[in-house]
């Protein structure tokens, strides 16, 4: 047995047990020797009784001394050691509690002085590097802002196709129930074959500047994406080079292209036949020895019918062509109020008067050209007095109306205005602006003696009070590019584990008697840090009443979960979120019991490796301490907001932060890999059962 691996308290206990055994052995030997020397068989009972009484007295004295020693020496030393490790490796700033070591002489004050000096040194070091850290943080923020506003999805992947970086646009493009996650395979979100082939092609070129364009589809919804791949140079091992992938959604482009191709095919088909018939009929009329008058009339009528069919076909196809123009022209969403205000400013600068009145709408239009057109029309109408620009909702689109008092504009004058270049935009005419928007412009007379020009826009929507924010978050960990991967989880260093820390809230404490999950939350830890943007949090419909006593603890009512998804659906999504990760929980057997009881219903196995922060706390601070989540976070200097306590997400975040603070303390004790930690926590099985096989 390796006694150096045993805890201090156990070694002290074994020392006193050996001392007791030695005393009893010496007592027995002395009694045997004295009995034999006496040589009186009748004295045997006296020797046995005296030896027994003396043995119990010896055992009692030694046990009493051991209890005092354990309570006043071993336990305080263990507490001081745990406190010192927490302040050394978990960066806890609170002063070390010396009251536990009041019988240890100068040891407790010395330990407090060491930790206080360490805190001062750390503070001085932090202050010394703060200026440089602030500068680097500013540069990092600027880089993140630039990357987050790139109008395409950007992914950075390792040679093993694991995600190292993604931006907000990529989250929208990849789709699915959950956002992508660091250290997850990109093949979980994109069809893998085109990506693998493109990477092989780039490796074969041996050109570090080469790029490959490809089409790929999303796994979630089959959306077609145009992608460009470029390798990341790795001089040490070119075959292990990762790659950058930029993504753009071309599903709408492909659909618009298909419609245009169909329109062109239909154009040729519908024009070819009447044109051929018209040509034949014209040939008959042109013959010198033509038919009789009645026959000529019939041929002439057939020619007119063919010409009419051709004209109608050309008109209909032209209208469809104009209507589809907006499908491929890049038009942005512009607030109606902003458009009206921009026109007002330009009209006022030119000496006119215009009152913009706009409904709360977002218009799909080319803002600059539309402002130029409306301003140009207002300039032509300057002699009509004060103008009013009204933008109202009309069906799926909007109607832009420029109104004035007086007679309407003549059509021929309006046509001339549209054919002339716009003021300040010489290369653009009003007719081109209308064509870009697949729209038209016409004059109208209003019943109250006013007139207006009407310009409809095909697409508009109401502006929400709180529009959905533009995704700006970029998530990355470039250390993943160079991280070596271990074949076995047991051999993986703790800081390289990909972990999912989770917590559940339930209807009660007895899953064997029908209690169910009402909320589950989880966060991901990758490469030793919590990924802020990768969170799983959802209510669950338990399919049974929630007792009032449970609601008093977690605050979840039956009304809150009435529209929530059932537990089987939620656990399938959670299993996907936690795929390939180590599960971490506080009092893991309780939460894992709820998951594993649903394996048959979900068709999934929750056979992940598991770490329990209760057992990790016992390894670092000793079994004699309290290992509740409140006690653990208090020792580690972690604050749980009162409103977040006993919520699944609040407890999950607290557990994750505690887990990250425990990792350096475990490493300092020589527990470097997952396997070593599991072997150590099994020594604390009287607290909780380890769930790893």
From TrEMBL:
Stretches that traverse the bilayer: 12-35, 47-69
What GO biological process term is on the record, naming one? DNA replication proofreading
List GO terms (cellular component aspect): cytosol
> Where in this chain does the record put each PAS domain?
141-207
GO MF entry, a single one: DNA binding
Documented EC number(s): 2.7.7.7
User: Could you describe the subunit structure of this protein?
Assistant: DNA polymerase III contains a core (composed of alpha, epsilon and theta chains) that associates with a tau subunit. This core dimerizes to form the POLIII' complex. PolIII' associates with the gamma complex (composed of gamma, delta, delta', psi and chi chains) and with the beta chain to form the complete DNA polymerase III complex.
Exonuclease domain ranges (all copies):
498-668
Q: Which reaction does it catalyse?
A: DNA(n) + a 2'-deoxyribonucleoside 5'-triphosphate = DNA(n+1) + diphosphate
> Which keywords, in A-to-Z order, does the entry hold?
Membrane, Transmembrane, Transmembrane helix
Protein's name according to its UniProt entry = DNA-directed DNA polymerase
Q: Matching Pfam families, A to Z?
A: RNase_T (PF00929)
